Amino acid sequence: MIRNGSELAKMRRAGKVVAEMHEATRAAAAPGVTTLQLDAVARAVLDRRGAKSNFLNYRGFPAVICTSPNDMIVHGIPGGYVLADGDIISIDCGAIVEGYHGDAAFTMAVGDAGEEARRLLEVTERSLWAGIDQLRPGNRLNEVGRAVQAVAEGAGFSVVREYVGHAIGTKMHEEPQVPNYWPGHGGPLLKSGMVFAVEPMVNAGTPETVTLDDNWSVVTADGRLSAHFEHTIAVTDDGPEVFTLP
Ligand code: MG
Ligand code: MG
């Protein structure tokens, strides 16, 4: 799907709201704070900006953000979990402005999370930016996953296969998918005006995942740490434009 200038302008505004949710939740995340309190902080940003949530009620999801601590990879439901010094926490946020969607995630350390966690966060974020750099007219979409995988596996970590990035626009999840690994073929040709959410999920140990009994929370099969970074990005003639930066 190719977005025109006015559509891209709305997506840019949705992206700014998501970036503001990131700033607010990052500032609020501290030892003793519950993930439900982080959800309230994110809701306040949506209300203040007159934006809607794309996460709330998505297949019954009960919150406006996903909060996934430590070995949880993605899709954690905000609730009574109390952040502790040494945790890492992935916070995934989304917003709709005038019918157009933004979607982005980051993972942060709460206090001192230790050397492996620090390295995992750094490598996962770097893998996202390596993927983003491939979003240029004339490239093939799956060069994104090839670049993500090279960074993550080059650092000795693994890339989750079951969950992937996606095109985004008037729905949060549009086709095609954006794998975080090389799927064996180049995929669609990139054109100016296409918009994607690129979102590597990188595990310290095995790439295998397990879904918990709440049918949402996805954790690593070996209980080791996982990190998740995501941005919403447009392909433009001037290179990738990241909508979800502050
Ligand atoms: Mg997301
Ligand atoms: Mg996404």
Give a structural overview.
The structure is a single chain. The protein has 246 residues and is of the alpha+beta class. The chain has a single domain, classed as Creatine Amidinohydrolase, CATH 3.90.230. The chain has 4 helices and 14 strands. The strands form 4 sheets. The protein has a 5-stranded antiparallel β-sheet with strand order 7-6-8-13-14. Strands 1-3-4 form a 3-stranded antiparallel β-sheet. The chain has a 3-stranded antiparallel β-sheet with strand order 2-11-10, with no helix packed on it. Helix 1 runs antiparallel to helix 2 and helix 3 (115-132) packs antiparallel against helix 4 (143-154). The radius of gyration is 17 Å and the shape is globular. The two termini are 25 Å apart. The mean pLDDT is 98. One magnesium ion (MG) is lined by residues 103, 166, 197, 199, 230.
